[in-house]
Design goal:
The protein contains 4 helices and no strands. By secondary structure, the protein is an all-alpha fold.
Length: about 100
C-alpha cells in the first residue's frame, strides 16, 4: 500500500513539473524570437545609418555571431565562416576582441 501512495505522489509531482517545464519552454521560445526580431531591426537601422554616413555596412555573420552564436550557426550563409573562425581563422569573421 505504501508503494502505491508513493507512486501516486510521484505522479502528481511530476505532472506539475512537466506543465511548468512546457510553459517555461514556450515563454523562453517567444522571448528569444522577440529578441531576435529586435536585433534584426537594430542591425538594419544601424547599417542604414552607416551607409548614409559613407561607412561600410556591418557584416551580418559577425554581428549575429556576437549576439547569439547558436543562431548564427543555423544560418547556412554563416556556418562555414563560423567553423573557420572557431578553428582559429581570425579573418573569417570581423570579431574584435
Amino acid at each position: 500500500m505504501k508503494n502505491y501512495i508513493m507512486i501516486l505522489i510521484c505522479c502528481v509531482i511530476l505532472h506539475n513539473c512537466a506543465a511548468a517545464l512546457v510553459g517555461g519552454a514556450f515563454y523562453k521560445s517567444s522571448k528569444t524570437k522577440e529578441q531576435r526580431q529586435e536585433f534584426m531591426t537594430s542591425f538594419q537601422k544601424t547599417n542604414s545609418e552607416r551607409q548614409a554616413a559613407g561607412f561600410k555596412p556591418l557584416d551580418w555573420c559577425s554581428e549575429v555571431y556576437k549576439f547569439d552564436p547558436g543562431w548564427a550557426n543555423n544560418d547556412p550563409q554563416c556556418n562555414a565562416r563560423i567553423k573557420a573562425y572557431e578553428k582559429g581563422d581570425k579573418n573569417a569573421l570581423s570579431i574584435e576582441n
